[in-house]
Amino acid sequence: MINIAVFASGNGSNAVNLCNYFNNHPSIIISKIYCNNPEAGIIAKSKSLKKECTIFNKKDWVSGEVAKSLKENNIDFIVLAGFLWLVPLDVILAFSSKIINIHPALLPNYGGKGMYGIKVHEKVIADHQKESGITIHLVNEEYDKGEILFQAKVNITEQETALTLAYKIHDLEYLYFPKTVEKYIIQFNKKGH
Questions:
Q1: Catalytic residue among 25, 103, 128, 137
Q2: Where are the chain's structural domains?
Q3: CA angle 131-173-182, nearest 5°?
Q4: Whole-prediction pTM value?
Q5: pLDDT digits over 98-138, tens only?
Q6: pLDDT value at position 193?
Q7: SS3 38
Q8: Which of 67, 79, 95, 102 is the most buried (most CB within 10 A)?
């Protein structure tokens, strides 16, 4: 089995969706959830999903403790599902081309430090954009700068608010994120990396 660790910082709706999608998968399993926020909703949800959840702090993240835990748990791929911290270089190097993130906008626009969740949608609306969407990409040492794997778009109406746009974006995330992760991992392994 190919082991995925999902990282989440908040409510964890994308993490739950991923867990459900891969629940009975023949070759891929989400074996662990990592969370950097002791107040996050994903912690309680991980119990009902019967997934072990490791809560860690900034010190664990930068000192290599999390990287060590990933290795000890035989993790093959990392999926960031609403995870807000920059990934340290030791983790990026240990999981080269094996860390996948989702961003709620059409990168390279509306990415970077501080651009997440509703903040992205508010800026998109304030800039009178005609469309937005999701970007699923590999992670490198810069926020939202890794190779783009997939994008999907939605139109923005005259009456759109940041909240209504957030719902449209969530629908795209739920539909495409698990499928894109699955496709990438299967193709990656076929190439014999």
A1: 103
A2: 2-103+134-151+173-190
A3: 130
A4: 0.95
A5: 999 999 999 999 999 889 999 999 999 999 999 999 999 99
A6: 60
A7: coil
A8: 79
Environment class of 112 (CB within 10 Å of its CB; exposed 0-12, middle 13-18, buried 19+): middle
What's the token pair of residue 155? 């139109």
At 66, which helix (H) or strand (E)?
A: helix 65-72
Q: Please compute, for residue 70, the number of CA atoms within 13 A of its CA located in the half-sphere on the CB side.
A: 26
Alpha-carbon Rg for the chain in angstroms: 16
Q: What tokens does 116 get?
A: 């997440």
Torsion-angle region of 57 (φ positive above 0: left; ψ -120 to 50: alpha; else: beta)? beta
Count of C-beta atoms within a 10 Å radius of residue 181 = 25
**Rounded to whole angstroms, how far apart are CA atoms 169 and 176?**
11
103 in active site: yes
**C-beta separation of 165 from 130 below 8 A:** no
Q: Which residue has the tokens 């990933």?
A: 70
Q: Which CATH superfamily is domain 2-103+134-151+173-190 in?
A: Formyl transferase, N-terminal domain (3.40.50.170)
